[in-house]
Amino acid sequence: MDKPINEAAPDGTPMNHRDLIELGLSYAGTSLKYPFDPKMPVLFVGSKIFALLGSWQEAESVNLKTSPDEAWLQRETYPGSVIPGYHMNKKHWNTVVLDGTVPAPVVAEMLEASYRLVHAKLTKAERLNLSRS
């Protein structure tokens, strides 16, 4: 039986790419694409990235947008598991290693926050177009 998307499994199984994709695609106006590599799924809201799924030292990971203050706080709270965004603007993006250190509900909150931040930066016309689809 699969674990709920926003909770860790009773055995402590961490959130994984499949969970993040399923959750991310439940948000309005999102899509899954592979613009960089066929093994690197990317979640978009409209035309902008809000989650880039990859790996870090052989563990699944996800790059998520965040505010600069929140980025610092997350890195301090989960040292080694939340690090400055790999290949991203380190001020606004974190890489979250999906090794179970960051609880699944927290990762789900981070994903939603990333979606909201990116959605808010879409042009008014693009946001309007997404609300119609």
Walk me through this protein's architecture.
The protein is of the alpha+beta class. It has a single domain, classed as Aspartate Aminotransferase, domain 1, CATH 3.90.1150. It has four helices and six strands, in the order H-E-E-E-E-H-E-E-H-H. Strands 1-2-3-4-6-5 form a six-stranded antiparallel beta sheet, covered by helices on one side. The longest helix is centred in the C-terminal third of the chain and has 18 residues, at 104-121. It starts with 16 loop residues before the first helix and ends with a helix.
Keywords:
single chain, 133 residues, alpha+beta, Aspartate Aminotransferase, domain 1, 24% strand
Helix/sheet category: alpha+beta
- The ordered H/E elements are HEEEEHEEHH
Question: According to CATH, what is the class?
Answer: Alpha Beta
- The total of helices stands at 4
Kindly report the spatial arrangement of strands forming the biggest sheet.
1-2-3-4-6-5
Terminal-residue CA separation: 33 Å
CATH architecture: Alpha-Beta Complex
| Average pLDDT rating | 89
What is the name of the CATH topology? Aspartate Aminotransferase, domain 1
Radius of gyration: 14 Å
Number of strands: 6
Number of domains: 1
Q: Which range best describes the helical content: under 10%, 10-25%, 25-40%, 40-55%, 55-70% or over 70%?
A: 25-40%
Q: Estimate what percentage of residues fall within beta strands.
A: 15-25%
Which segments are poorly predicted (pLDDT under 50) over 5 or more consecutive residues? Answer: 1-10
